[in-house]
Amino acid sequence: MFGSDVERLMILALxxxxxxxHVQILDFIxxxxxxxxxxxxxxxxRDKDNKVRTSPVLFTEGRNVxxxxxxxxxxxxxxxxxxxVLIACDSKALKRSxxxxxxxxxxxxxxxxxxxxxxxxxxxxxxSVYSAGRxxxxxxxxxxxKFDGIEITQEIATVKNRRAAVSPTPLITPLGTTYKCHTGYxxxxxxxxxxxxxxxxxxxxxxxxxxRHGKVTDLHxxxxxxxxxxxxxxxxxxxxxxxxxxxxxxxxxxxxxxxNGELSEWPTEKPGVFSAYPFxxxxxxxxxxxxxxxxxxxxxxxxxxxxxxxxxxxxxxxHAVLWxxxxxFDLNDLTDAPSDCVLDRAFRISNKGxxxxxxxxxxxxxxxxxxxxxx
Length: 375
What we know:
By secondary structure, the protein is mainly β. Helix content is 8%, strand content 52%. The chain contains four helices and 28 strands. It has helices at 5-16, 94-97, 99-105, 297-304; strands at 20-26, 29-33, 39-46, 52-60, 63-66, 75-79, 85-90, 113-119, 122-129, 131-132, 140-147, 151-160, 163-168, 182-188, 194-199, 205-210, 216-218, 228-234, 240-247, 252-259, 262-266, 273-281, 287-296, 314-324, 327-330, 341-349, 355-361, 364-373. The protein folds into three domains: 1-33 and 274-375, no CATH class; 38-168, no CATH class; 169-266, Beta Barrel (Thrombin, subunit H), CATH 2.40.10. The strands form seven sheets. A four-stranded antiparallel beta sheet has the order 1-28-27-26, with no helix packed on it.
């Protein structure tokens, strides 16, 4: 999977936590990257009416490739290791290019998301959903659809011959319970295994995993009232990352890893960090996300342009964080970024250990790419 000895050394260094990162500032907001080093994201501009317009781009070999125009609206972008890009955007993008299709997907004013698959320099409309998950090598993604304008269901969408064929996901009620519940899926891997949570109401839920052949596993069946477990990500090996919310009154939670049937809980608090949440999980069981910090008001005012207040008052700010071997690190402490930069969110980590996210510099938000370096 990894082509060079240097990459293997980086992976080894990451596995043992002996790593620092070189930061590259990007002129767009990234949303995903693949193991080949390709990044997708959006360039933000303002039109003559001072409205923000977004344009999807692919960053490859040090330059931006324009992926086309999609009604000037924001897009959800994901890229797989075949360099196929899934573009999920406002269905207004079909209004000029395919008026009949636009009418079809906007029946009764029920706005939906139009999905385009970009590959080999061409974008093709493949179907309509309400939101789409990450694109895999098989061109499969988890889709969210709405029926009768009320019920939201989830399906597995697979792009074949430039059209997304969907198959309904199973409705799951864990055995041994008498509660009426609903299962929402959050991720799917290459094997077709899905993870999510079964909501019982009253602020408690179970984390579940559903195999492609239909087998259901409750990852933590002993759940108390006001206690919730959720499975959020699953990698290609079948390891699962999720959340344990144990005190809803104060937002207390931990990050959970289920590996080979064993559960371990990772901390979301450390000195200066109030709470942290993962956004991405790779095949090395490493996760990235954001952490809410509590710092002196004068410090946060420099970062967020807040008014300076007495030092005993605190305000939350956000830093990009990384979990390695169950330990949480502030990515701002691991990079060679200039002192006036604050890495505030990490969106994705690849299997090479590359990380993309957003950075605040001079009160402007831009993107960043982190590459591990050996010390």
